[in-house]
Design a protein that fits this description.
This protein is of the alpha/beta class and about 280 residues long. It folds into two domains: about 100 residues, 3-Layer(aba) Sandwich (Alpha/beta knot), CATH 3.40.1280; about 150 residues, Alpha/beta knot (3-Layer(aba) Sandwich). The protein has seven helices and eleven strands. The chain is globular.
């Protein structure tokens, strides 16, 4: 999505490293290739990626193991430590691939220099409708992001039964990806949505039409419905509809459902008044 190269490295190389068919390089051997190295980790000294201007030159971004994080000896070698701001209780992280996608998007679009204007709206004024998730893991991971970025409820159009299903294997896969043991987000069927409750609708789909997300200023008044995904949403489109798209760098690449959606939710959360009523 970002046009970046991807490398896998080990901070500790096993004794039989040279006997492996595809040995991973030591991370120390890679760090010297970059003018600046950013580590993505939620620690005390980290800065929000939205407050960090993109470094010049060749930049390396390190993301670590989702549960164990980046080893401290590797963190010490980074020029900057950045994190993706989260306010959802109970979650210490988003999916590591999601975090990487958000960091790379913010760096590539240099959102740290832009600094978003904070809307007068709070989370209570903004509802999310997710449309047509492709599979349980994608919607589960996106629900994890929605909770981490501040929403306590989402609406869902699910014609394929990716979430609202009695298939046990799908239920287990989706709930595991959502981290439901600590994620308390309420998922409501679209039928409970009343369009008359909203003054404006913001639609973000895969058509890449409208305003790029990196240049979009969120509405400042009224109640807003944020729609993400594809499928039949013509009933939502009227004169009060804004069309936006996630303007990731490698446009010919089709972004995964959870990655583009998580970038969208993260960026929008930065423009809302922080904290629920």
């Amino acid at each position: 999505m970002s046009g970046a190269s991807l490398l896998f490295a080990k901070s500790e190389v096993p004794a039989n490293h040279h006997e492996l068919n595809h040995p991973s390089p030591e991370i120390d051997d890679l760090l010297g290739q970059f003018d600046q190295v950013l580590a993505c980790e939620a620690v005390r000294q980290s800065r929000s990626v939205y407050e960090c201007a993109a470094p010049r030159g060749r930049v390396g971004v390190i993301v670590g193991n989702e549960r164990r994080g980046i080893p401290s000896k590797v963190l010490k070698k980074a020029d900057q430590v950045v994190s993706v701001p989260m306010i959802g209780r109970g979650l210490s992280s988003v999916n590591v691939a999601v975090a990487a996608a958000i960091i790379l998007y913010a760096m590539e679009r240099d959102l740290g220099r832009k600094r978003f204007r904070t809307s007068s709206l709070s989370y209570n004024n903004v509802d999310i409708l997710i449309s047509c998730p492709p599979n349980p893991c994608e919607i589960g991971s996106l629900l994890r992001s929605a909770w981490a970025f501040g929403w306590q409820r989402v609406f869902l159009t699910d014609p394929g039964g990716a979430w609202f299903t009695k298939d046990r294997s799908k239920v287990l896969a989706g709930r595991a990806a959502a981290r439901c043991e600590v994620n308390r987000i309420a998922v409501c069927p679209e039928g409970q949505l009343n369009l008359q409750d909203y003054d404006q609708v913001v639609v973000c789909d895969s058509e890449r039409t409208g305003t790029p997300l990196s240049r979009f200023t969120f509405p400042t008044h009224g109640r807003v419905l944020l729609v993400y995904g594809d499928g039949e949403i013509s009933s939502l489109v009227n004169e009060a509809t804004n069309h936006i798209f996630v303007d990731y760098a490698a446009a010919p690449i089709e972004a995964s459902f959870r990655h583009a959606g998580s970038i969208l939710f993260s960026v929008v959360s930065q423009q809302l008044r922080q904290r629920h009523g």
